[in-house]
Amino acid sequence: MKSFYWHFRPTAVLSKCLGVFPLENVLNLDASLLNYKLFSWSNLYSLIIFTFYINMLYFCSGFIFDIPSVSHKFLCYVVYVMVIRSFLSFMCCSHNSRKAPKLIRLLDTFDRKKHQILVVNDYSTTFNVFMWMIIPNLVSITFLYLSLEEAAHTWQIFPYFIYLHFAVKITYNFIEINNTLVNKNMICDYLNKDINYDPEMYVTLSKIRMLHNMLSECVTELGKCYGTSIALDQLCITTVFIVNISVYVYEGDHNTEFSKCNHNISVIFVSDELKVRGSEVISLLYGIPSTAISEKTQQEINSFLTQLAVRPIEVSAAGYFVLDKSQTLATICRKAELSDSRQQRSRRLTL
């Protein structure tokens, strides 16, 4: 059975070629050899690629700076924000790449250990290659092809594809843990009063708790790697919305592309699903009657529930907010405000 890094390695190589994943030894199959060096050829290559991206952004948008109109002055501010956003993405990728090897090693170790404990679906190698290797890279390459004319967007959005890859994999692992609890009859069943629990259930439950702790650590490391980048990106996107609302107020027929901001919605929904699946074990274990299980099993369940209360499963954006569906409303409201402003401006021009 191939482990996580065997499937993730093509994504790591592609990301390194684009300059957004400056790690050493990405071609090696041994995840323990991954490391980050500040003074390395990988970082130098990443800096060269980033400089090229910024020059491309200026080349594609430079005509805006020569048009002396109010609306185009606002667009100048949008370009400035895009440059700042790309620069912040570059700094975050460079700084947070040193934390990525630990996350990769944790996921790789989980894949190696889970077959000894969990009830997993032994899909064929072809299915795993298609699911965890072909689809992520196909989506990434498609995005890269569609954004060739705006090269700097690679730095703004491509790291999100790596984040989504990690988040989806962690969510899938949580689902496997939950399914194991169900299949081994280690859950609360309110409809079955005569359910019998294994007296030695605590042995298996302790091993499952260890794997759950490993995934909880993965979620924490995921927040450390990408939380700051997501928080800063959210700030830049909010600034772009405000500037474009001002553009619509001054010039109603101006069109601005907002599709580059829609990746935030994907990140929010995937992060929320990760939170839900990681916390599902609470509802599975909470209602088990203490009279139906042994004392050691009850202690193991208490430890499981206590650790989830002390360390909840959630991705933190550098401590500013938690990535879940509560962030969706704010994003939708910003788009609704933009649409209302444009409609009001159109009505005034008609009158």
From TrEMBL:
GO terms for biological process: sensory perception of taste; signal transduction. Keywords: Cell membrane, Membrane, Receptor, Transducer, Transmembrane, Transmembrane helix. Pfam families: 7tm_7. It is found in: Cell membrane. GO terms for cellular component: plasma membrane. Belongs to the insect chemoreceptor superfamily. Gustatory receptor (GR) family. Gustatory receptor which mediates acceptance or avoidance behavior, depending on its substrates. This is Gustatory receptor. It comes from Aromia moschata.
